[in-house]
């Protein structure tokens, strides 16, 4: 059985070319889980950066239009977690909070059958400049908590920096 299969969901396996473009710390966490994740393109709409939530990510987070989502830091540079606001108060088995320091909040919007969220400026600073880049969503061991990281495109010129950490 392939490790790229998830029951009941259609996801794209991680492409090796995309994997080489990600931040090294982000890839360590993704490789540990061992299966592919959905990727969505970040778009700019009226000076706001927006991304569409994949359907199974929205189901995993249990969000509907009008709910608020919190963006939180992780120990891995270039990777954030997102969850519904009520998940901020959930505790792990050891009695500690599941989510890290909260960076920003945003509201979930419904658009033509899919859920969209905007990427707040504080989250953009943590992720790097995400406009036109792809965001990869990953599941965690905690229900309702999803990781987010940006896949950086290669630079046009050899000496140019693409903002990857």
Concise summary:
Helices cover 18% and strands 32% of the residues. It is an alpha+beta fold. The strands form 2 sheets. A 6-stranded antiparallel β-sheet has the order 1-9-10-5-4-6. Strands 2-3-8-7 form a 4-stranded antiparallel β-sheet.
Give the helices and strands, then pairings:
Blueprint: H1 16-21, H2 24-33, E1 39-41, E2 43-45, E3 48-53, H3 55-61, E4 68-73, E5 79-84, E6 102-107, E7 109-111, E8 114-119, H4 121-127, E9 134-139, E10 145-151
Antiparallel strand pairs: 1-9, 2-3, 3-8, 4-5, 4-6, 5-10, 7-8, 9-10
Structure notes:
By secondary structure, this protein is an alpha+beta fold. The chain has one domain. About 20% of the residues lie in helices and about 30% in strands. The protein has helices spanning about 15-20, 25-35, 55-60, 120-125; strands at about 40, 45, 50-55, 70-75, 80-85, 100-105, 110, 115-120, 135-140, 145-150. It has a six-stranded antiparallel beta sheet. Strand 4 and strand 5 form a beta hairpin. It is globular and about 40 Å long. The protein starts with 15 loop residues before the first helix and ends in a 14-residue tail after the last strand.
């Amino acid at each position: 059985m392939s490790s790229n299969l998830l029951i009941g969901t259609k996801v794209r396996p991680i492409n090796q070319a995309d994997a080489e473009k990600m931040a090294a710390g982000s890839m360590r966490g993704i490789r540990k889980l061992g299966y592919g994740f959905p990727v969505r393109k970040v778009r700019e709409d009226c000076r706001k950066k927006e991304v569409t939530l994949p359907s199974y990510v929205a189901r995993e987070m249990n969000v509907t239009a009008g709910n608020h989502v919190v963006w939180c830091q992780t120990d891995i540079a270039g990777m954030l977690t997102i969850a519904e606001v009520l998940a901020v108060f959930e505790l792990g088995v050891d009695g500690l909070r599941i989510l890290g320091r909260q960076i920003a909040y945003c509201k979930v919007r419904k658009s033509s059958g899919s859920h969209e969220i905007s990427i707040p400026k504080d989250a953009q600073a943590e992720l790097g400049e995400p406009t036109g880049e792809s965001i990869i969503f990953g599941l965690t061991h905690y229900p309702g908590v999803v990781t987010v990281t940006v896949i950086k495109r290669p630079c046009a010129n050899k000496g140019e920096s693409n903002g990857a950490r």
